[in-house]
Amino acid sequence: MRFERSHTRKAVALAVAGSLVLLASACGGDDGSGDDSGSTGGALEGRGPINFATGKDTSGNLTNQVAAWNSQHPDEKVTVTELPESADQQRAQMISNAQIKSDAFSVLNLDVVWTAEFAANRWITELPEDQFPDLGKLLPSTLDTAKYKEKLYAVPVTSDGGLLYYRKDLLDKAGVQPPKTWTEMQEACTKVKALPEAKSASCYAGQFEKYEGLTVNFSEAVNGAGGVVVGDDGKPNVDTPEALAGLTFLVDGFKSGMIPKAAITYQEEPGRRAFQEGNLIFHRNWPYVYALAGKTDGSSKIAGKFAVAALPGKDGAGVSTLGGHNYAISEFTKNKATAADFIKFMSSEERQKANIEKTSQAPTWASLYDDPALNKQFPYLAPLKASIETAKSRPKVVKYGDVTTAIQEAAYGALTGTTPPKDALADLQTKLSTLITQ
């Protein structure tokens, strides 16, 4: 989720477009006018400079990746347009650009859950699978996120599985093991906080601001309690005892102080910074945090003091929400052939290996999870692979913007004490039944 990256200037037209889509979204106008048949595809033609629209690059490595392409393709250079840190704002600006059929963006860095929406609205181009021969070498769960109605519309470049970061030094000193259940995590916190050096630290935080990260964390809580947000039959199923147990765990966490009050404002980056500052014992986040938290340049106070475990659940191992990013070609760009080659370049095994070495972001190439050198550098790769393979997808629906907004409003209302958890879930069931069956 997540997702991320450094400030660049934006054209005035883009800023105006971003404002327009935010207004349209507020009025319920982000569904698009296209039907659900998707793009008809066609030849990928046209060569020349292209623009890559992506979230903020907090890793600092995207510049290196793009520079490698540009040095080899001086007549087809890629310019990077960095969008806001918030996933919701990234999506809004991409939709705005598409709704006015602008060719300002050529390649889009899409959150995996946006593929269906963008394909159904014909904002991205159907890709001929025979032009992407390495698809079979990717993790199957990641490739599934790049398809809509069995047709390819994007290529998975990074994946994501939620991980539990924890202060290994403090757990070792307190004599406790990494938790496998929520109860074990609470008990571990009690013991760790008895240490003088951990007295002021909070127990746990994830991403709880009202944005896409809250949909992820809510889904993981529901799945971790044995429930589902949407069942295999494609129907919502959140008004259940299991979903109530998951949401109640988070609500009670805020009430008891296990989760600090400040976490209601946390997206990925604020949470990461809190963990790196030594303010959290446990922190749910994505693989990209590993490299940043481990830096020895003074930016992290916990370098060498943390480790990673699988997410805990109610009665055993938790379940991650599947994250990651897919690269897609805008339907409105002129240089589709160059865009396709850039995607092949960035999704190659060589470039994905170079990226994980610098950023710790999860690759989509299956072979990289078995690479001895990478496993030595990133000892969590084996459990991460298992996390990704067993992760649950968020709802694959055309009206995803409306669905995720409904989930966020219900969860946020419960977390802030505005709505009792049971009422929040009953209302959410009603809303999702309307949105998903339309």
Automatic annotation (TrEMBL):
<feature type="signal peptide">
    <location>
        <begin position="1"/>
        <end position="26"/>
    </location>
</feature>
<protein>
    <submittedName>
        <fullName>Multiple sugar transport system substrate-binding protein</fullName>
    </submittedName>
</protein>
<feature type="region of interest" description="Disordered">
    <location>
        <begin position="30"/>
        <end position="49"/>
    </location>
</feature>
<dbReference type="InterPro" id="IPR006059">
    <property type="entry name" value="SBP"/>
</dbReference>
<dbReference type="InterPro" id="IPR050490">
    <property type="entry name" value="Bact_solute-bd_prot1"/>
</dbReference>
<comment type="similarity">
    <text>Belongs to the bacterial solute-binding protein 1 family.</text>
</comment>
<keyword id="KW-0813">Transport</keyword>
<dbReference type="Pfam" id="PF01547">
    <property type="entry name" value="SBP_bac_1"/>
</dbReference>
<keyword id="KW-0732">Signal</keyword>
<keyword id="KW-0762">Sugar transport</keyword>
